[in-house]
Specification:
This protein is α/β, with parallel strands linked by helices and 337 residues long. The protein is 31% helix and 29% strand. The protein has a five-stranded mixed sheet, with helices on both faces. Strands 11-10-9-12-13 form a five-stranded mixed sheet, with helices on both faces. Strands 5-7-6 form a three-stranded antiparallel sheet. Strand 10 (190-196) and strand 11 (199-206) form a beta hairpin. It is globular and about 60 Å long.
Length: 337
């Protein structure tokens, strides 16, 4: 899932100190991870202002305690594409050409593409790839934020895919023999992933998040969106009617995908794992469980990662789930070596 960035400085043979940067709608989330053997340590974490991709790109200034030589980037973008694709490949092949990928993903040459082989087809069966494409303009924009000196960008991926790496690091052993669904839901975008025995089977991306829920709640209750956002996090107020009307189409798409996987894999999706800013809203967590008829469980991307208490500020500690993509991007940098 890691895509090396052409034109970036050549990375050292072995990374042991990386930053992960997630450019999301509401903030720029940055983590610094160090690896020693099988141990991973969090040595820095911060929430910085969001980056506006519609403006001119400028250098990203990082706090000194977080900056290191190389960084792994990820971002959320409505125009980015992530999809499972199936196609025949020769026995000696493990990858697809950019031309073939653009054809399968229905994108033009102004997109950069990447794919990972998930399962090789036997006989005449197609092979499955987890594929992604991002606009070249976005790649250039992010490279311009690191014009010289450390950190040099070493990789770039879609945030929804980086979360998979973080989840497998945190809960991979627990789910090694199960079929599960991951939902990463933030301010404006949501992603879902269906996996069986640690293997990705389906991925999806939707323009849905806290912003849409707040807008609906504000309309139904006749309040402004700031108050609606506060109500969304209040357990004492019953807002299930408003939630159901907005969540319906989102849950339906996941439910259809879930049923498809269960039929074709002969398995049962036993649990739904949630992360992202929306997972901090208890009413949403219970509602999505009811709509999908499944147990919903939160998880932390800091599981199986060591850190000192002073490394994690109090105002960020309760929001660790929002850093899943940033942590996954950095972990992917270690794993890609």
């Amino acid at each position: 899932m890691i895509k090396k960035i052409k034109g970036s400085k050549k990375a050292p043979r072995r990374h042991t100190d990386l930053i992960g940067v997630d450019f999301s709608t509401t903030a720029t989330k940055v983590v610094r991870l160090k690896q020693s053997g099988d141990d991973v340590v969090l040595s820095g974490i911060d929430l910085l202002p969001a980056v506006d991709f519609s403006t001119a790109s400028s250098r990203l200034e990082l706090p000194r305690n977080i900056s290191t030589y190389y960084g792994c980037l990820c971002y959320s973008c409505p125009n980015a594409v992530m999809r499972m694709v199936n196609t025949p490949i020769a026995a000696e092949e493990n990858s697809l050409s950019d031309t073939k990928l653009r054809e399968l993903l229905n994108v033009k040459e102004d997109y950069r593409t990447s794919a990972t082989l998930i399962s090789r087809g036997k006989g005449r069966m197609d092979s499955s790839f987890l594929a992604a494409a991002v606009p070249q303009d976005d790649v250039g924009f992010m490279l311009n934020m690191f014009p010289s000196g450390p950190p040099a960008p070493a990789s770039l991926e879609i945030s929804g895919l980086a979360v998979i790496t973080a989840f497998l690091h945190a809960r991979g052993a627990e789910c090694a023999d199960q079929a599960v669904c991951l939902i990463e839901a933030g301010e404006a975008n949501s992603n879902f992933v269906l996996m069986n025995q640690g293997k990705v089977l389906l991925v999806g991306k939707m323009d849905f998040g806290i912003r849409r829920l707040c807008s609906k709640l504000a309309e139904d209750l006749g309040v402004d969106e700031d108050l609606a956002r506060s109500i969304l996090g209040d357990r004492s107020i019953n807002i299930s009617s408003s939630l159901s009307s907005v969540l319906g189409p989102f849950a339906k798409q996941i439910s259809i995908s879930k049923d498809f996987v269960e039929r074709h894999q002969g398995c049962r999706v036993s649990k739904v794992y949630v992360s992202g800013g929306l997972s901090l809203m208890p009413c949403w967590t219970s509602e999505i469980g009811d709509l999908l008829h499944a147990e919903v469980a939160p998880w932390s991307p800091l599981e199986n990662i060591s850190y000192d208490a002073e490394t994690l500020p109090a105002d960020i500690e309760g929001q660790a789930t929002r850093f899943a993509a940033a942590i996954g991007a950095a972990l992917g940098g270690f794993e890609s070596q």
